[in-house]
Amino acid sequence: MPSKSENVPVSTYADRALADRCRAQVPGAFEEVYRAYAPRMFGLICRMTGRSHAEDLLQETFLTAHRKLGSYRGDAALGTWLFRVATNVCLDHLRSRGYRSGRLMDELPDEVQDERRPESAVLGVIDRLDLERAVSALPPGARTVFVLHDVEGFEHREIAAMLDISEGTSKSQLHRARLRLRDLLASPAVPGERRA
Q: How far apart are CA 82 and CA 32, in angstroms?
């Protein structure tokens, strides 16, 4: 479920006021930010990197946000700024050497062993697992744009601002992601093996 549809409209003034209270270290101000945005950030991080590192990356996102709150100017909603911080934390993680070498050692989840069962409920879970696996196989840039656009519901203009890229690059990455996903989901799965 896209987290953006659950966004509660907050005026830029309210965001700036909350950011100002955080910068002034008013007790409870940053906790208010955390409680308002942590569930949405956790969803984004899970979609971009998988669940295994999501809690650590969520913590890193809010530590980074706390450290960089002084750079928040209030030009965009605080949630949009936090999405940008979370996206950059995820991209740094995906580019890291530890993550890449760790992926080579990852085992498939137990649910994959049930992949050929005919029950429709199980097939729905398998379809979701196939999609999650296919999304995780996308290159980081394409995955980021796909998650932000097709899952979170951001427009190319917003994605371009978050990632500091052009709208054309965002559209191109999304097109490539969709083509790659189509190929990944169309290829036959072999039980116990990942799809390429």
A: 13
Scanning the structure block, which residue is given the tokens 């196989």?
137
pLDDT for 122-181, tens place per residue? 555 557 677 888 888 888 889 989 989 998 888 999 889 888 899 999 999 999 999 999
Q: pTM value?
A: 0.65
DSSP symbols for 11-47: -HHHHHHHHHHHHTT-TTHHHHHHHHHHHHHHHHHHH
Per DSSP, 189 falls in state P
The tokens describing 93, both together, are: 């993680």
Q: Residue 35 has which token pair?
A: 């409680």
Query: Looking up tokens 């450290």, which residue turns up?
Result: 67
Task: List Cα–Cα distances, 78 to 30, 41, 54, 65, in angstroms.
Answer: 12, 12, 21, 10
The residue assigned the tokens 């989840």 is 109
The region, left, alpha or beta by phi > 0 then psi within -120 to 50, assigned to residue 84 is alpha
Q: Which of 27, 28, 43 is nearest to 147 (CA)?
A: 43
H helical segments located in the chain: 12-23, 29-49, 54-68, 78-95, 97-105, 120-136, 140-146, 156-163, 167-186
